[in-house]
């Protein structure tokens, strides 16, 4: 019995638009972000998929992306679990700063290391490894068992929390995952084998922006 796991990164947020580090801060979607979520929803609707449960973070940009998708596919009232375990990476002292201002303050190279290293966190924040340390146990205890029961599960979350998940699903190395950029609003559909390995993966949208 194979289940389906669909991962969607939230659409553009107000702070993405302003080039700010966001992390656990809670700006809403922009009009473009809502349009991105709706485009992803329409792509999912074309597959005819019906979900058994949805998971999202404690942050409004992911929750609203999730709801836009569920509304579009006719499942507005689906059980939706919200948990900070799949929140975006916490950027600590960088949160709320313009990325250019951060580079002026700490230097281009240091900010690049914080953004793109696997295990070096920004001051007061999390590395991608730290993010994975809370995402992976939650996936194993709360999300994966539903998929392995043959259910269809939607996860609407964030660039880094989803990268942590994709790292284990696609068996990517630390170096490979750092190069992965997830397109906003583009659903990634995994079919899992009974042993939790990936049987099939499809990106519903522009393939070039998903890799």
From TrEMBL:
Q: Which family does it belong to?
A: Belongs to the phosphoglycerate mutase family. BPG-dependent PGAM subfamily.
Q: What is this protein called?
A: 2,3-bisphosphoglycerate-dependent phosphoglycerate mutase
The organism named in the record is: Martelella mediterranea DSM 17316
SMART domains noted in UniProt: PGAM (SM00855)
Root EC class: isomerase
Q: Where is the active site?
A: 10 (tele-phosphohistidine intermediate), 88 (proton donor/acceptor)
Question: Which function does this protein serve?
Answer: Catalyzes the interconversion of 2-phosphoglycerate and 3-phosphoglycerate.
What HAMAP family does UniProt report for this protein, alphabetically? PGAM_GpmA
**Alphabetical keyword list:** Gluconeogenesis, Glycolysis, Isomerase
InterPro entries xref list: His_Pase_superF_clade-1, His_PPase_superfam, PG/BPGM_mutase_AS, Phosphogly_mut1
């Amino acid at each position: 019995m194979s289940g389906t796991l669909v991962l969607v990164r939230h659409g553009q947020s107000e702070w993405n638009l302003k080039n700010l580090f966001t992390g656990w801060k809670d700006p809403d979607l922009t009009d473009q972000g809502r349009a991105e979520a709706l485009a992803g929803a329409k792509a999912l609707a074309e597959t005819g998929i019906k979900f058994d449960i949805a998971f999202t973070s404690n942050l409004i940009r992911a929750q609203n992306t999730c709801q836009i998708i569920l509304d579009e596919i006719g499942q507005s009232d689906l059980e939706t679990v919200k948990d900070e375990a799949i929140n975006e990476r916490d950027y600590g002292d960088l949160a709320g700063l313009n990325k250019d201002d951060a580079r002026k303050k700490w230097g281009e190279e240091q900010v690049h290391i914080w953004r793109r290293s696997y295990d070096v966190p920004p001051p007061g924040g999390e590395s991608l490894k730290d993010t994975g340390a809370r995402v992976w146990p939650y996936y194993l205890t709360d999300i994966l068992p539903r998929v392995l029961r043959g259910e269809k599960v939607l996860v609407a979350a964030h660039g880094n929390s989803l990268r942590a998940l994709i790292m284990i699903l696609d068996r990517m190395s630390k170096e490979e995952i750092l190069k992965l950029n997830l397109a906003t609003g583009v659903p990634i559909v995994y079919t899992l084998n009974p042993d939790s390995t990936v049987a099939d993966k499809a990106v519903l949208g522009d393939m070039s922006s998903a890799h």
